[in-house]
């Protein structure tokens, strides 16, 4: 049974807005309510169609009134910020993430109309360390519980959602653990990081990166909202790339820095508002993270259209390369043909000087 | 007059003339190198979820190790027919030599000498993956963390997995204890094999004990660096970096007959008695095979 009234939090960000637009285009859904603290951009507003926008802070009990008044039956919680810069510092970020989720869940608990909750979580809950297995399945837990930042918030949020599930066993809950998003339109941690022409990485480490294309992310969220999957599922594209490989494929340059220096570069670039990355994101850059997506394909029933490599290639269209791969190809191709020509000439000279004995054309026939 | 032609009466008798294939000339090698460089610069190569980079392994890491395998240690391999050509198996070997050179040489052995050029997927301690450069290179060579999840995933995918259950106890043992196997951990490797039904191939490596004869262990330095042991050999740290040159001992690597585990069923992994018995059986087999190989070797550097 499709949902009648859907509430989407974090609708002013690209993915939230895209989901609301997708749901609004579905005539089976009666009402789509988008909530965010900031109004969506004019472009986004046009896309949102019949979505009703409510400018509200989920940290405010007002959200309860919205849910009750509209008798919302499906809540999609995606107002979880991954970077301090987006929400004005680490403290407001934590407040928005953790307190906001608590408020939202409290409001959901009070509203008898709510029967489905979809949480946009992250694979960062698995942490990233040298002690981790190479591939995480949904049943695994972080060996080292993330100490701070987005990953810690996400672990806390999942904990609150679990206790909400205990208090409201009648509500179906889908927890989607997304890998890093990438794509031409989405604004994610990695898209900003990789846009730098000179990408700072940790010297002596090469992270395994699993990406998810924005279209697939949208597809999964839509299916989770309108479908009936309950439980936790990892969401990621097929295949992995190494961070060095990602940078090379984009035609950017890698700047390997010793691990301690990377922290100060991070702080510096955060101050100047380029890209910010916290210690936990730096751990991710060291070791990377890969999740098993068998459950996504079988139980959830979604196969991402883009593999990790294809998603990166689609993103690469929007990034100006520093070292153009086609230039590299033409230079090495030119050198190869030059080597071939020199080799042929040398071979000809050698044959002239030392002729190869001709293959025997005539052989003795043995007696029958 | 037209050229006389051979009319073959009994065509099977004669080998047809096949020109001897000439080794790749310098220009072909250079062109191959340029192709490799192009792939590396544009990132157009494949890596797997464990971080294994076959392109780098084949073109850089294995060629670097090969001279050590062929010339320096003159490795001889036995029993490669016991290693399956296309299915998963768990190779369990003794560990020695202060630095895990034995793991690298076994990798070369299985790639170069096995008819199916098997990839050897090593399981390493978490310390390996914490060290910069070393950890990244280990993953690119096909290693991953020694944990049941990774071992089972690799075995299910039909990979040849290598494990050294002695761990640091084996590799960091003093020279006077050479060729005596240490305790075999908690038998995690046996339960991984049982759960996936993969055969266990006991592997004995002779020669690695002598490359860096460890006559002492500077425990204070080890604690300071956060490593399990700090080796003192006749040449290290006395001669500085020169002490890192391994002694050219003669190596023998023998793969024993596979011990099948599929008939026990995956539930047997929960039976500690069976796991202990199998662990002991593997350990005894390797120890026995070590003694046999030692008798076979004429001298340490022979």
UniProtKB/TrEMBL annotation, chain A:
Source domain of life: Bacteria
Gene3D superfamilies registered for this protein in UniProt: NAD(P)-binding Rossmann-like Domain
SUPFAM superfamilies found in the cross-reference section: NAD(P)-binding Rossmann-fold domains (SSF51735)
Residue intervals of the NAD-dependent epimerase/dehydratase domain: 6-188
PANTHER family: BIFUNCTIONAL POLYMYXIN RESISTANCE PROTEIN ARNA, NAD-DEPENDENT EPIMERASE_DEHYDRATASE
Name assigned to this protein: NAD-dependent epimerase/dehydratase family protein
Species annotation: Blastococcus saxobsidens
Lineage of producing organism: Bacteria, Bacillati, Actinomycetota, Actinomycetes, Geodermatophilales
From TrEMBL, chain B:
InterPro entries, per the entry: P_lipid/glycerol_AcTrfase_prd, Plipid/glycerol_acylTrfase
Superkingdom of this protein's organism: Bacteria
Single annotated GO MF: acyltransferase activity
SMART domains assigned to the protein according to its UniProt record, in alphabetical order: PlsC (SM00563)
Protein name (Swiss-Prot/TrEMBL): Acyltransferase family protein
Keywords: Acyltransferase, Transferase
Record carries keyword Transferase: yes
One Pfam family per UniProt: Acyltransferase
Domain called Phospholipid/glycerol acyltransferase: residue spans: 89-208
Gene Ontology CC annotation, any one: membrane
